Amino acid sequence: MQMTDINQRLTLLCIALFQGLALLVLHQSIEQSFWPSYNLPWLFGLYSFTLVTPTILLLALNNKANGMLYAFAMLAGSVALLLGYYTGTQASPFQPQDSYGELIPVLVGTIAIATFKGLMYIQHFTVSGRGEEPTYSRLFKLSWRNFLTFGAALVFMLCFWGILKLWGALFDAIDITFFETLFEQPHFYYPILSLANGVGIVIFRQQSGIIDTLTRIQQALMKFLLVVLIFVSIIFLLSLPFTGLTPLWESGGSLLILWMQAILLFFTNAVYQDDPTQRPYPTAIHRFIYIGLALLPIYSIISAYGLYVRIEQYGWSVDRCWAWLLWSLLTLFSCGYSWSIVSKRDNWLYRLNWINIRMGVVVLGSMLLVNTPILDFRKISAHSQINLLSHDDLVLEEVDFYYLRYNLAKPGYDALNALKAKHPDNLKLTIKIDALFTERGKAAAVEQDTLIATINVLNGELPESLEKPIYDMMVNNVWLFRQLSATYLQPIDLNKDQQTDYLLITGQEGNRIQIYLFYFADDQWKHSSFGRHEGLSKSQIIDDIRHNKMEVKPPVWNILKIGDHELQLRQ
C-alpha cells in the first residue's frame, strides 16, 4: 500500500512535469515563430488541452478507476481543444501582435469554470459512486476540495518562485549573476514551477481532512451571513414601491440585482448542502430564509426589465449577452427554489439536491457553449450593432467602430467589411474602416484624390497647391483616419500678414477633436497644430464658423526671447 502511494505521487509529479514541458514548447513556438504560433486555432486549442487534461489528472488521479479517469481526462481535454480551436479561428484575421480583445480571458475563465464543474462529476462517477446517483452534498465537498487544493498549490508555487527570486537577487548583489539569469529563462521556470505546483497538489491532497475543516469553517461563516443577506434582500424589495425603479436604473441597478441573486444562491447552497432532514437553523429562522428565497423571482423580473430596456435602446453587446446568460441561470435557480418552497414549504430541501445537480450540468453546458458558434456572443453583438444602423442614410457617428474592431474579434472584422461592401460610395466610411486595420506608424492606404474628396471646404475653394501637403500630413497619421467622421477646411488670416491660411478641423464629435493650421512660408506650405481637445463639440465649432463667429485675437503677452530660446506666457 505504501509503495502504491509512492508510485501515485511519482505519477502526479511526472504529469506536472509533462504539463510544464508542454507549456514551454508552446511558449517557445511563440518566441521563435514556429508551429503552432502562426496557426492561432491550433495554438489556442493546444494551450487549452495542456491546461485542462493534466490539471484534471493532478486533482483526481488515485488508485481506483484510473483507466476510466484517463479516458474522462482525455475527453475533457479534447473538448477544451475544440473550444480553443474555435476561439482561435475568431482571431485569424489579425496579426499576432494585435489585441485579441476579450478572446483569451473569456476562453480561460469559461474553461476553468467548466473544468471544475465537470471534475466533480468525473470524480463521482470514476471513484465515489459508480452506478450511484450523485448527491449535492458529495459534489459540493468534491468541488471545494478541488478548489482549495488547487488554490493552496498555487500559493505554494508562488512562494517557491519568490524564494528563487530572492536567491537570484542575493547572489546578484555580490556580482554572481548566474542564478538570476538562469531563473529568468523559460526553459528553467516552466518545468520547475510546474513541478512546484505538482508538489503542492500532492501535499494538500494528503491533507483532505484539513481541507474539509476549512470548508466547514466557511460554511459556519456563511450560515450567519445568509440570514443578513435575506434580511437585506427583503428590506430592499419593500423599499422599491416607495422609491420607484428609476434611481435603480440610473445607478446600474440590473447588475447589482444579479449580484444579489448570485450571492444569495451561493450562500444558500453552501449552508444547505447536507442531509435535508438536518436543518442548520431553528424553525423560525429557517422559514424566514425560505420566504426570502421564494421572493427571488421578483429580482429576476426587475433585472429582466432593466436588461430589456438597455437592449431595446442600444442593442446586444457582449456584456449584455453575458448579463442575459447570468440572468437566465439565476432565474432557473430562483424559480426552481421558489417552486420547491411553494410546493414543499418546510420540507423544500428535499428537492434542493435534484435541482442543484441538474443545474450544475446546465452551468457546465453554458460555459462550453459560449465558446462555440451556437452561443458566440461576439457574433450576436456584431449582428445586433449593424442592424441598429440606418443603412439607407448611414451616419458615421452611428457606428461604434472601436467596439466592432477591438471587442468583437473576427465577427467585428466581418461586420465592418460587410458594412464597407454595402456602402461602396461612402468614401469616409471606407477610409475609416481601412485605417482601423492599419498598423500604427504606417501610412494609410488611400489615394490623394480620394482623401481630398472627403474634405468639406466651408468657404472658398481648396488651393490645388495645398492638396498634397494636407494629404502628406493626414496619410501618415492613422489616428486621424480612425477618428474621421467629417473633415472641414476654413480659410483664415491668423497672423494678419494679408496672406490666407487654412484651418483643418478633424476628429469625432465629442472625442478628441484636432485643429491644424496650414500656412505658407519659405515658398512652401507648412502646418502646425492647436492640439487635441477632449469633449469639444465639433458641430458647434462648424456652426459658429458658418455664422462668421470667428475672430483673430492677439495674445496679451508677447513672446520673450532669451538668446536662442523663445518663451510664451500661458494665458
UniProtKB/TrEMBL annotation:
The keyword Glycoprotein does not apply. InterPro entries: DUF4153. The keyword Membrane applies. Pfam families: DUF4153. Keywords: Membrane, Transmembrane, Transmembrane helix. Coiled coil: none annotated. The chain crosses the membrane at residues 12-30, 42-61, 68-86, 106-127, 147-168, 188-204, 224-242, 254-272, 284-302, 322-342, 354-375. This is DUF4153 domain-containing protein. It comes from Neptunomonas phycophila.
